[in-house]
Amino acid sequence: MKPRIVVTRKIPEPALELLREAGQVWLPEPDHLLSTEELHAAVAGADAVVSTLQDRVDGAFADAAGPQLKVVSTIAVGYDNIDVPALHARDVVVTNTPGVLTDATADLAFGLLLSVTRRLGEGERLLRDRKPWQFHLGFLLGTGLQGKTLGIVGLGQIGTAVARRARAFGMDIVYTGRRRAAEDVERELSARYLPLEELLRSSDVVSLHCPLTPQTRHLIDADALASMKPTAFLINTTRGPVVDEEALAEALARGVIAGAGLDVFEKEPEVHPALLELENVALTPHLGSATTETRTAMAVLAARNAVAVLRGEEPPTPVRS
Ligand code: DGY
């Protein structure tokens, strides 16, 4: 009998083709975000599930699927929505999609950085609101990047790609994280390791690239924000809950820091209403990996992961315990 493969959202055709060669594919029709009840009903009897970061994958999910479930393949690099120990305890392989979205996400992070430091949104809103304006030497002045310090929290693949872009803009790099980067990476970026407190105190822009874990939830809270320079900017393209959004909105409104660029939010898809009122924030709706090329590459990698496990092979990018 062909394995049952459940795909929880519409995915690019090349990925679907790979899955259809390997088994009987089920997709929600029409495409929509499945409620927990719908998700649990859909995965019943599945051998493989290809999921997205919106699906809660935990012990109850695995139990709803049944003991034949072999793999959960998420189309994302972040997997804070998955209870990995609960799945591993049931001998279910978990895979994610690192690498293929590095450049797209780094581009978006740098786009937000430029948008907020050069006040692009403010300028566009002014024009769209048909407000009067004229060029003058003090009009909508932003902050230049050359010679400024970028603090990277989490110098993994995406953090490193952001740091490379920043070097091309003449920025100096400091970084923090659970461990030191390899010597050649430090050398290439002329990057200095600093403890978080020192990085926050000394950076002109702080960009977050650590995964969301119990240790990084609200890593950037009111105290962390208060320790940053009043001229500094915060960029978040990782996961919303790494930042205490309430504290950030207050810090931005009171000039504790100069601005923020945010692609992710604490209670997505909700955005803290105060953030929507502030001019010194650049906002995008979780678009980090949102290019046609990248989303196709992510879905194809997720499909290859699922198919490999169904064939009894080692998947290209498993999540380790
Ligand atoms: C991820 O992959 O974790 C991003 O947030 C979405 O592409």
From TrEMBL:
Residues 5-319 form the D-isomer specific 2-hydroxyacid dehydrogenase catalytic domain. Keywords: NAD, Oxidoreductase. Coiled coil: none annotated. It holds the Pfam family 2-Hacid_dh. SUPFAM superfamilies: Formate/glycerate dehydrogenase catalytic domain-like, NAD(P)-binding Rossmann-fold domains. CDD domains: GDH. GO terms for molecular function: glyoxylate reductase (NADPH) activity; hydroxypyruvate reductase [NAD(P)H] activity; NAD binding. Transmembrane segments: none annotated. PROSITE patterns: D_2_HYDROXYACID_DH_2, D_2_HYDROXYACID_DH_3. The keyword Oxidoreductase applies. One of its GO terms (cellular component) is cytosol. InterPro entries: D-isomer_2-hydroxyacid_DH (IPR050223), D-isomer_2_OHA_DH_cat_dom (IPR006139), D-isomer_DH_CS (IPR029753), D-isomer_DH_NAD-bd (IPR006140), NAD(P)-bd_dom_sf (IPR036291). Residues 110-288 form the D-isomer specific 2-hydroxyacid dehydrogenase NAD-binding domain. The keyword Oxidoreductase applies. Belongs to the D-isomer specific 2-hydroxyacid dehydrogenase family. This is Lactate dehydrogenase-like oxidoreductase. It comes from Saccharomonospora glauca K62.
